């Protein structure tokens, strides 16, 4: 038996979370028993999906939900050896003991940093890949609009669309992010929705309309995109971040779905297990040959996890928000 830290939710957030909604707690962790492994955290992932779960799904006084990468430090399970790297979904825990279910062994490419297995080669990358290519049914050379294109998912979506020869327009909330998308990621046009009138900017940036709108935001972004959707356009719905902290803007143009014969469909990363092998092969190649660029915002130390989640909703991240705990 040993002790280790956990991040607990202790109060339901009202709007954007604040530090007092969380607590850093010491917990007793049992040694690995028969058939079990003990895992020490190396990296933790901070993601937008975590916020709506704080309103109901996340139990108070329990470790925060979330994914990460860890190292097996004790094993009495024949499927795992001490030293194995694993990807998991067991939340904000410095150390945990489990029976091995829900752990995915990692064999990272030595030419890539381990952290990419929590974004471009992890759930966010699969979300982008499957959402765009399967749900969005992207065809080479189409017209694509991506909201929150500076985020971990949106930036990968935009670059995959560029690889497929599409014209790609992205929206983001800062000039610095806009410059990265334009100058590094190679988007054809970038909109700063905080400084430009959104509907007018989307219209001007999409002279041939929109075939695929990758939806991360909802509200005014969805309204602006609906005005520009081409007949038989597709809207894969990854997120509605404008509503996650309460409030949000009403959508007026949903009738455009009818006469435009536009398909709008939600999805989650786990829908795409059948694409896993092709995704890993494609994404590994794109990362290694520089066709996919990425940004990481890395906070150091386990205790920084609440700050990372709060910062995500205040726009303090560029690309993927990560917590680095140990090497």
From TrEMBL:
UniProt keyword Oxidoreductase, yes or no: yes
Query: Mind telling me which Pfam families this protein's record contains?
Result: ADH_N_2, ADH_zinc_N
Q: State the source organism's domain of life.
A: Bacteria
Recorded hits in SUPFAM superfamilies, A to Z, give: GroES-like (SSF50129), NAD(P)-binding Rossmann-fold domains (SSF51735)
The UniProt keyword set, sorted, is: Oxidoreductase
Show the InterPro entries listed in the entry: ADH-like_C, ADH_N_2, ER, GroES-like_sf, MDR_fam, NAD(P)-bd_dom_sf
Keyword flag Oxidoreductase: yes
Q: Name one GO molecular function term.
A: oxidoreductase activity, acting on the CH-CH group of donors, NAD or NADP as acceptor
> Which residue intervals define the domain Enoyl reductase (ER) in the entry?
17-323
Note the PANTHER family from the entry. Answer: PROSTAGLANDIN REDUCTASE (PTHR43205), PROSTAGLANDIN REDUCTASE 1 (PTHR43205:SF7)
Q: What is this protein called?
A: NADP-dependent oxidoreductase
Q: Which organism is this protein's natural source?
A: Sandarakinorhabdus glacialis
């Amino acid at each position: 038996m040993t002790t280790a830290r956990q991040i607990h939710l202790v109060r339901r957030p009202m709007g954007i979370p604040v530090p007092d909604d969380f607590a850093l707690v010491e917990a007793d962790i049992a040694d690995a028993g028969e058939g079990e492994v003990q895992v020490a955290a190396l990296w933790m992932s901070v993601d937008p999906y975590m916020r709506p779960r704080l309103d109901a799904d996340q139990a108070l006084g329990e470790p925060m939900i979330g994914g990460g990468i860890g190292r097996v430090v004790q094993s009495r399970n024949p499927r795992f050896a001490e030293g194995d790297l694993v990807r998991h979904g067991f939340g904000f825990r410095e150390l945990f003991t489990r029976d091995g279910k829900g752990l995915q062994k990692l064999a990272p490419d030595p030419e890539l940093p381990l952290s990419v297995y929590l974004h471009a080669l992890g759930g966010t990358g699969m979300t982008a890949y499957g959402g765009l290519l399967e749900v969005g049914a992207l065809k080479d050379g189409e017209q694509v609009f991506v909201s929150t294109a500076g985020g971990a998912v949106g930036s990968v979506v935009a670059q995959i669309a560029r690889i497929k020869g599409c014209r790609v327009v992205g929206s983001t909330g800062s000039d610095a992010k806009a410059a990265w998308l334009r100058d590094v990621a190679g988007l054809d046009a970038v909109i700063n929705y905080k400084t430009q009138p959104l509907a007018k900017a989307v219209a001007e940036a999409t002279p041939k309309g929109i075939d695929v709108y990758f939806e991360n935001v909802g509200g005014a972004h969805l309204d602006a995109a609906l005005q520009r959707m081409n007949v038989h356009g597709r809207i894969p719905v990854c997120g509605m971040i404008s509503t996650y902290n309460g409030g949000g803007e009403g959508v007026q143009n949903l009738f455009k779905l009818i006469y435009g014969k536009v398909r709008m469909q939600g999805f989650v990363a786990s829908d795409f297990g059948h694409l896993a092998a092709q995704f890993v092969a494609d994404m590994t190649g794109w990362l290694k040959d520089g066709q996919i660029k990425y940004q990481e915002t890395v906070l150091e130390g386990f205790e920084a996890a609440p700050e990372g989640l709060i910062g995500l909703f205040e726009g303090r991240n560029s690309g993927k928000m990560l917590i680095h705990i140990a090497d």
